[in-house]
Write a structure and sequence with these properties.
The complex is a heterodimer of chains A (about 240) and B (about 220). Helices cover about 85% and strands about 0% of the residues of chain A. Chain A has about 240 residues and is mainly α. Chain A is elongated. Helices cover about 80% and strands about 0% of the residues of chain B. The longest helix of chain B is centred in the first third of the chain and has 41 residues. Chain B starts with a helix and ends with a helix. The chains are: A mainly alpha (about 240), B mainly alpha (about 220). At the A-B interface, α1, α3, α4, α8 and α9 of A face α1, α3, α4, α5 and α7 of B.
């Protein structure tokens, strides 16, 4: 009896060892990683470039929406709210595919990078716009009137008095949305833009080994985790202040 | 003008592919409802567990929640669908999409619920405990009712964002709206099915976005 139990134990240990080996071979295969790391590196830089393009574009678009809203012209505000709500109810991936596959049918051939930028600008400007709008509305009317009475014109008032305070008030939301936008860039893999996720999938196809996918996930974690931590801290501090 | 009509609003194509788009709508709605139910429930449970302040458990929760907040949903789905089978874990595309987005929603919801719990003043806890209420009673009857109210606007927004991400399930071959529309587009060599998909998403999500505006003004922070 004892012998059987021992043998069973040895067997299950061997199986566990095999499992661990399979895990390492499939998910943390250094040989594969060494082979495909130039691809992943290329994808990583593309992702960084995308972020550097998409985030400022979105912020600029959002500012335009929010400042336009702050004039409180009734028909314009209706239009802006319609724009914002329209793109908030639209999955960014659907928008991207519509732009990418739809524009050529209009006779407009665009490279995938431009399609990605157009789709993300439309989407992120609506989110950033909504956040900036809330920020601007959190600044009392008196501030504007005081600024105007000191001789600042409308634009100066907006740039030097309202916006700095508005941005401070909605900083956690701004960072949170920026995190979302950076995550969106992975969607560009669907239209064959050679960013990190795309390169990871190409590398997996070349090596028949999913290690590149795990590496891609870890790279995204390394890139975005600091922002998540910062955000948790900021949100807690904002909450404590109220 | 004609070109736009032909390529984006072709009535024949519309009639032909309407049934498959509607099938997709059903799948999207099912997936979304499942994700909302399981994601919010799991997030709530995690936040309550975190309130017990057991150090090792809290570390674990923060670790997992952070990871699922940081990773793009499309990366999570692709890892689950294309990498996990190599170590013997195979799931259908639908299960992958449901599980991925449930974990993402649960992570965001946990963080929101937890921030809500923290926002209830320490004095409330102490006062409740001093009247003889136990820890759980305090949590259930005093803290959570106040905390949950504050969490409604951010939860609504987050839930909409994540249920919209069900479109990403097209990458793992779930026959939802976008998958159906892409297939129809390929068959018909016409963009009309994608426009139908766009309209379908608007019909589903626009009411929710408008509702979220109302929720914001109803339950939002009074600044």
């Amino acid at each position: 009896m004892g012998g059987v139990a021992l043998r069973l134990e040895a067997l299950s240990r061997a199986r566990e060892a095999a499992d661990v080996e399979a895990l390492i071979y499939n998910f943390f295969n250094l040989e594969v990683l060494l082979k495909v790391h130039p691809l992943l590196l290329k994808g990583f830089w593309m992702t960084i470039q995308l972020c550097i393009l998409v985030v400022p574009l979105g912020i600029a678009g959002g500012l335009v929406v929010a400042v336009a809203y702050s004039f409180h012209v009734r028909w314009l505000n209706w239009l802006l709210i319609a724009y914002v709500d329209f793109f908030r109810s639209f999955p960014p991936l659907v928008l991207l595919i519509l732009v990418f596959y739809g524009l050529p049918f209009l006779g407009i051939e665009v490279p995938s990078l431009i399609a990605v930028l157009i789709a993300f600008l439309l989407n992120t400007a609506s989110y950033y716009g909504e956040i900036f709008r809330a920020g601007i509305e959190s600044i009392g009317r008196g501030q504007r009137e005081a600024a105007r009475s000191t001789g600042l014109n409308g634009i100066q008032t907006m740039v030097f008095v309202v916006l700095p305070q508005a941005v401070r008030n909605v900083l956690p939301d701004l960072i949170s949305n920026t995190l979302e936008v950076m995550k969106f860039t992975a969607l560009a893999s669907v239209v064959a833009l050679p960013e990190l996720l795309r390169m990871g999938r190409v590398a997996q196809g070349l090596t028949y080994n999913p290690t590149p996918l795990i590496a891609v996930a870890l790279i995204y974690l390394a890139l975005l985790w600091p922002i998540v931590r910062l955000l948790s801290r900021l949100e807690r501090r904002t909450m404590a202040k109220r | 003008m004609n070109r736009i009509a032909e390529n984006f609003f072709d009535l024949e194509v519309m009639a032909k592919y309407l049934p498959s788009i509607l099938d997709g709508v059903l799948v999207t709605i099912q997936l979304a409802i499942l994700i909302v139910l399981s994601g919010l429930a799991l997030g709530f449970v995690l936040a309550v567990v975190r309130a017990f302040q057991i150090r090792a458990v809290n570390w674990l929760i923060v670790l997992v929640v952070d990871a699922f907040r940081a990773l793009p949903p499309i990366v999570i789905m692709i890892v689950f669908y294309f990498a996990l089978p190599f170590v013997g874990i195979s799931m259908s595309g639908f299960v992958v999409a449901w599980l991925s987005l449930t974990l993402v929603l649960a992570s965001f919801a946990e963080e929101i619920f937890w921030t809500g719990i923290l926002s209830v003043d320490r004095g409330q806890w102490e006062a409740a405990r001093s009247t003889g209420l136990g820890f759980l009673q305090t949590l259930r009857d005093v803290v959570l009712p106040q905390a949950v109210r504050l969490t409604i606007p951010p939860l609504t927004n987050r839930t909409i964002v994540i249920t919209k991400s069900t479109a990403i399930a097209s990458v793992v071959a779930v026959p939802e709206i976008l998958t159906q529309a892409s297939a129809a587009q390929a068959f018909s060599a016409n963009t009309t099915p994608l426009m139908m998909a766009a309209v379908a998403y608007l019909v589903i999500f626009l009411p929710l976005v408008v509702l979220s505006r109302w929720v914001e003004s109803r339950f939002g922070w009074k600044r």
